[in-house]
Design the sequence.
């Protein structure tokens, strides 16, 4: 019933297509859907086959490379270093890229059900605590780029989403994202990916809740508080067909994988270098468990450091292999990904310096606690 | 017709401006295109995922670069 109502509503401005045309569109959509499904099955099969082949092919490639190197009269030690570097790069590189293609597509399709507008509607008027949890979870699935952090912030606050709940969303959205999770899964395994995801959510929930408790509302820039949000806020969302959602997923792949692939490969290249050349145990004295100051230092270095998950995770994965402790590594990764100078500069437009500092401080403290916790537990 | 493209200056926002301007030029529609970066104004339209497109005060799209066909349909072409 609902769709019919909406259709007749849209016809009110006279620019709407007659019903007959809608039916035509529907059958066309159904054909496209069938086409996508028919194409999808063989593509998935090929994907899986290639994925299974990656490891033997990389090993074969590296072995041949090592054999070729013997011509140059290098010492066996050097050849082994080079061989393991090459094997690491040609296995991890394609593996992570293939995982990215699949997961970004899947997440893209899921995201087509969400929009910042809908998320705002869900969160508006929610009480804190439950609101913080919901906001952190929605932060994971709502499509949102950091360049619209400002308008989004204003939109949330003006729709009476509590400040702390808004922050939970803003913290979890960049930190727990599909690119980070794929890289963690690919390079560290599913356990660390799961740990990262759950601790990221917990930090977003607790940091947001804490900011809410501090009653910082008057540290928003004055014009934000005075702002009257226009009528058009009641913007109706378009209906999406299944084919539209597939297209949405493909678009996400084009945009996200198109943007990050080069960082992934660069990061893995550096990681491969570390993997092949840095002796095991080197990092233990700097980023090891017994070095008590390593967690806060890692977080402090990570805050101004601006890199996306794609570039940083392959490097830290190699460092961990060389003796860096899990907690310290996690803390460094989180602070690089969650707090960045560009985002702070954008948010400065709507937040007074004091609130901005508290935001960065609360998140940093949360990350440090997580770092220590994992160094002690594991 | 008054078309406003809203965005703080990200890549997608500039793409949107380009698409809208191209369609206006191609169809010869009688429309002015304005690019707005002022966040207070953007928020005033109730838009919070940029880029947004507003035509004669009505929000037509948010959070994505519209296709040429979409822009054409908004212009009634």
Sequence:
């Amino acid at each position: 019933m609902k769709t019919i109502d909406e259709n007749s509503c849209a016809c009110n401005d006279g620019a709407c297509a007659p019903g007959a045309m809608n039916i035509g569109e529907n059958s066309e959509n159904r054909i496209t859907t069938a086409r996508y499904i028919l194409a999808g099955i063989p593509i998935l099969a090929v994907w899986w086959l290639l994925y299974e082949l990656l490891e033997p092919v990389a090993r074969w490639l590296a072995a041949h490379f090592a054999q070729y190197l013997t011509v140059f009269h290098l010492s066996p030690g050097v050849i082994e270093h080079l061989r393991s570097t090459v094997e690491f790069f040609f296995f991890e590189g394609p593996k992570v890229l293939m995982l990215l293609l699949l997961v970004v597509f899947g997440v893209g399709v899921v995201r087509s059900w969400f929009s910042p507008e809908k998320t705002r509607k869900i969160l508006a008027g929610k009480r804190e605590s439950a609101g913080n949890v919901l906001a952190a979870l929605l932060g994971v699935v709502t499509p949102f780029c950091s360049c619209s952090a400002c308008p989004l912030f204003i939109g949330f606050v003006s729709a009476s989403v509590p400040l702390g709940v808004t922050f939970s969303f803003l913290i979890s959205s960049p930190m727990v994202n599909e690119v980070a999770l794929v890289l963690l899964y690919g390079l560290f395994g599913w356990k660390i990916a799961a740990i990262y995801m759950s601790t990221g959510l917990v930090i977003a929930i607790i940091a947001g809740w804490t900011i809410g408790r501090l009653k910082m509302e008057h540290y928003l820039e004055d014009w934000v508080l005075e702002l009257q949000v226009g009528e058009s806020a009641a913007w109706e969302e378009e209906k999406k067909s299944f084919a539209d959602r597939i297209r949405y997923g493909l678009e996400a792949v084009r945009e996200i994988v198109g943007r990050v692939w080069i960082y992934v490969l660069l990061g893995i290249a550096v990681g491969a270098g570390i993997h092949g050349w840095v002796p095991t145990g080197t990092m233990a004295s700097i980023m090891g468990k017994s070095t008590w100051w390593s967690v806060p230092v890692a977080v402090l270095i990570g805050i101004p450091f601006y890199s996306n998950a794609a570039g940083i995770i392959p490097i830290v994965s190699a460092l961990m292999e060389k003796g860096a402790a899990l907690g310290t590594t996690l803390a460094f990764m989180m602070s690089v990904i969650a707090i960045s100078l560009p985002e702070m500069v954008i948010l400065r437009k709507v937040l007074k310096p004091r609130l901005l500092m508290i935001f960065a401080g609360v998140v940093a403290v949360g990350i440090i606690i997580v770092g220590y916790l994992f160094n002690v537990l594991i | 017709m008054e078309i406003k493209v809203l965005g703080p200056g990200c890549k997608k926002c500039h793409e949107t401006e380009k698409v809208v301007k191209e369609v206006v030029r191609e169809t010869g529609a009688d429309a002015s295109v304005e690019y707005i970066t002022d966040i207070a104004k953007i928020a005033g339209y109730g838009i919070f995922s940029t880029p947004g497109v507003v035509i004669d005060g009505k929000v037509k799209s948010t959070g994505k670069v519209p296709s040429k066909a979409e822009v054409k349909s908004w212009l009634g072409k």
